[in-house]
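Researcher: First entry.
Model:
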Amino acid sequence: MRINVGILLMTAGAILAFAVHHGSGPVNLTVVGVVIMLGAAAGLWLSYRVLRQQERDDITLIKPGIEEQYDTAPHEYAIQEQIDVTPVAYQDGHSPTQN
């Protein structure tokens, strides 16, 4: 629903609910007007949410240069040398509690 259709339905519903005072017949025009206004309000809200979601999908959240900087994919090349990650205190077979 576009905004102009929603406003048109809100206006028509308000006219039926508040301006028409014709009480004969099985249909209560006040209730019909309120139902049309509620339907138009729901349609406007739903179209607004869908439009905002589409705008949010188009936004780039992370710049490509920054994304490449923090890329966690494994590298294509293998490490050529072994890296010793043993703490200095434990290297050479000594433990920190020994003096």
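Researcher: Second entry.
Model:
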Amino acid sequence: MVSFTAKMLDRQARKCKKDENKELALLKKEIAKGNTELARVHADKVIRKKNEALNLTKLASRVDAVAGRVQTAVTMRQVTGAMTNVVCGIENTMKRMNLEQMSVVMDTFEGQFEDLDVQTGYMENAIGGVTATTMPQNEVDLLMHQVADEAGLVLKSDMQELPVPQEELREEAVLNERLHRHRNAV
């Protein structure tokens, strides 16, 4: 059940990542069009989807960590039962003072504790690796600048207007030239 939940969370995180990429494409499109407001909306969605994917991945990791803790508890219960047997074995061996048999029982006892140490260390590392991070508020502007740079566009420093793409500038120049020729002809 726990494995299923973790896999489901991983699938949802991948879907969020896919949605993030879709929104990123829309962000680039709006920056190219020069539509700052819609670009901001898409940048906000990109960051939200990125954070959602990150949070789902963290949650899946925590679910795995909890599953590990449960497994450790089950193992501890088994070790407790084994220790009971070892203690009984030691008592019986002590009564007979059979050093060879006592050595075998103690080796078994130490082996079980080494296995427990390895499992506990693994769980501590897994749980310690799960940390929460927060994104700074200015990330929307940073993302918009990065996307604009990747698309070969330049954002104006005041973020009020986006630059006009080169194709529109060429069209405007052609229209201005035609208007100028028309005026001179009249």
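Model: Note on the second entry: Helices lie at 2-33, 36-96, 99-128, 139-150, 166-185.
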